[in-house]
Amino acid sequence: MENNIFNIEISLFKVYMYRYLILEDGTVYKGTAYGYEGETHGELVFTTSMSGYLETITDPSYAGQILIFAYPEIANYPLSYESMESDRIQVSGLITRDAHAEMPAGNLGISFDEFMRMNKVPGIDGIDTRHLVEKIRRKGVMKAWIRNTEKMPDDFPDTMSENLVGLVSRKRESFVKSGSKRILFIDVGTKNSLINNLAKIASLHIVPYNYDFDSIKDDYDMIFIPNGPGDPAHESLDELRDFIKRSFGSIPVTGVCLGNQIIALAAGARTEKMKFGHRGVNHAVTNGDKIYITSHNHGYAVSRDSLNGTGLRLAGWDINDGTVEMLEGDELKTFSVQFHPEAHPGPYDGEWFFGKLREMLGD
Ligand SMILES: NC(=O)CC[C@H](N)C(=O)O
Question: Active site located where (predicted)?
């Protein structure tokens, strides 16, 4: 029996709430509600990752985005603090085929459903995610709402025009003591695993994205910019890009994902919005000699034809579509990758990246 007034179905054992995914092209998908009971909106993207659901949804790069898991079985193994890439769920909403929302959790001691509820993130289960992913591959990413009614919303706000980095960057500076070399680590929405990896090769001074860079008097051996959400050309990152531009040539500047894009923009290259981005753990990247299977999560890319005259060299690309995946600048003393060498989730083929940073530190 389905009671349409409250979108509920009362069966013998359970009350099922329904909720709706509404796309800006007018398509509506109906599914079973879990997690937070409120509504949300965002840019609708998909990942093909087949494991690492907790690392994925707590990655701050996903701020402002509703995430579809193409892989059907989600939360079918326990939650654990160690797997979290930040202190909370960062996606705006979750679309799944078969989420085990009642899954008794691991050391978090709560179910996935409760974890989503605590983080104020709504989920919709039982969706034909293959159909949905096929549509996005065909039509490109779209803005969407998760609502408790199938009524069309008045508008579809573009979260990529917001200062998303400002939402996720830490508010205060912090220090990690680890050896004599010192890295200025600029938090634009970093995953915990990037901090952990860099702390193995140097001491870190971790600062917010809008730090007063002119006040810097200390000497550093490197500047590092990690992953983060939103449009790399967003005006909220103007000061940061100017600081990076002033730093070229005098100190090694390195970065991952959003960091790679910020370095490219600071050097005078351009970035562009991809049709549906790369989000998954089996993207093949080559440097012309070797092929690395890498973890990706990006919806923007450095424009390959904008590198001329910037001092940046194309050091690696995606073998399927040629997307810029590695950049190197000899005079600029830069090296950066678009993929995620820290994995979490994904393969460790790109781990040599941290050895390269160690070399650049003269260690
Ligand atoms: N993971 C990231 O750093 C993503 C970078 C940027 N927000 C993009 O979507 O391309």
Answer: 257, 340, 342
Is 342 one of the annotated active-site residues of the chain?
yes
Amino acid at 43: E
The minimum-distance atom of ligand 1 relative to the CA of 59 is 1
Ligand 1 atom 4, closest CA: 298
Q: Specify the amino acid at residue 128.
A: D
Measured CA to CA, the distance from residue 354 to residue 340 in angstroms comes to 11
Distance CA 315, CA 289 (A): 10
**DSSP-assigned states of every residue in 105-139:** -STT-S-HHHHHHHTT-EEEES--HHHHHHHHHHH
Q: Do residues 47 and 26 make contact, with C-beta atoms less than 8 angstroms apart?
A: no
Output the pTM of the full model.
0.95
Strand partners, 318: 285
Q: Is 200 exposed, middle or buried (0-12, 13-18, 19+ CB in 10 A)?
A: exposed
Taking the C-alpha atoms of residue 251 and residue 243, their distance in angstroms, rounded to an integer, is 12
Are 103 and 129 contacting, i.e. CB atoms less than 8 angstroms apart? no
Distance 121 CA to ligand 1 centre (A): 21
Residues 6+ apart with CB under 8 A from 361: 181, 183, 201, 202, 221, 222, 252
- Judged by DSSP in three states, 303 sits in coil
> How far is CA 220 from its chain centroid?
27
The single residue of 257, 278, 325, 344 carrying the catalytic annotation is 257
**For the segment 146-203, what is each residue's pLDDT rounded down to a tens digit?**
999 999 999 999 999 999 999 999 999 999 999 999 999 999 999 999 999 999 999 9
196-222, pLDDT tens digit by residue? 999 999 999 999 999 999 999 889 999
297 lines ligand 1 (CB under 6 A): yes
Token pair for 248: 């070229």
Closest listed residue to residue 148, CA positions, set 238, 33, 244: 33
